[in-house]
Write a structure and sequence with these properties.
Largest sheet: 8 strands, antiparallel
CATH superfamily of the largest domain: Trypsin-like serine proteases
Number of domains: 3
Number of helices: 6
Strand content: 35-45%
Shape: elongated
CATH architecture of the largest domain: Beta Barrel
Mean pLDDT: 87
CATH topology of the largest domain: Thrombin, subunit H
Structural class: alpha+beta
Strand order of the largest sheet: 11-10-14-15-16-13-12-25
CATH class of the largest domain: Mainly Beta
Low-confidence stretches: 1-40
Number of strands: 25
Length: about 400
Amino acid sequence: MPRRRRHGLDLIAGCTLAIATLFLSTGTPAAADPGDPTHGPRREIPPGMLAAMQRDLGLTADEAKTRINNEYQAGAAEPGLRKSLGGSYGGAWVSGNTAELTVATTDRGQRGTITASGAQAAVVDHTLRELTSAKEALDQAAEQRAPAVDAASAWYVDVKSNSVVVQAANTAGAMDFVAASGADRAVVRVVQSAERPRPLYDLRGGDAYYINSSARCSVGFSVTQGDRNGFVTAGHCGDPGDTTTGYNRVAQGSFQGSTFPGNDYAWVETNNNWTPQPWVVGADNTNVVVSGSQQAPVGSSVCRSGSTTGWHCGTILQHNTSVRYTEGTVNGVSRTNVCAEPGDSGGPYISGSEGQGVLSGGSGDCTRGGTTYYQPVNPILAAYNLTLTTD
């Protein structure tokens, strides 16, 4: 196979306690009794939030409205109670479907101050300041890579249990981490947990990715192959086995198949940190939904997304074109008058909401205009037995 060319214009490679803030939209009013002065004004709930609360929290519509209203009132009352309790303040939380407010204090004599406000009082051993100080010691130890830090998967101030909780699969190792941090052991609890948090990133057509930590191309379309996730892109961007990192330089995946010249397509399998989404990056970083891959006829409008020049549109001039690059001939591509530049390679073309293909190459630039060619997406899907991710 001729050596892949990764730069140049003839082949556009580019491989170069928190309470929710409520409520800003109109919707169904909350269910507080307008005649009850303890509830204050009604809160308005976005309809989508109301439906999601019913579904995910197992509430009726009236319960969801009541809960939202009470949560808002609790959030409004908590700062004043925190100030009144001063150094004895131990935190606050709401509980139950009606979101009843509980406020904690280390001073038994302050219970009346709390109950007079309509909240429940809890007398605890440790102030919120003590809990926060222990958590900060753990944070600092983690930044300094303290011994056994990797044994812990998460740690947090848990006001309801009046402790700092450290989650870990290896509890003995986590105890070593706590000891190394110097945190007050009296306020720290280590609990068994199989949870292994990981960062989550979206795969979007048009975003940058890097090949072997250096050259850059653009994601085409998100795809799946059984239980494997990934994306399609241009074949000239990488060879099978080449590794990729995402737009944020986080490990992403590796090329599983690649053909160039002859065709110009490839697919990259990604790791579990990356979630395939039915989107391509549109103007102003908006998400343009992909609903299918029906081929648009000659003369149709088509837009392209790429990590160098972003979102540009034009028309499809011809299908079934053969184009001659220095590396060899690529057959079966579509010709357009959409501009592109190095780094845009592999990025998606879309007509309406139908995916069309991935950028192969071209001439010109997005200052003077130019001609570009895309490898149709359906042959890529068929070649690797892939399924396009759609909405």
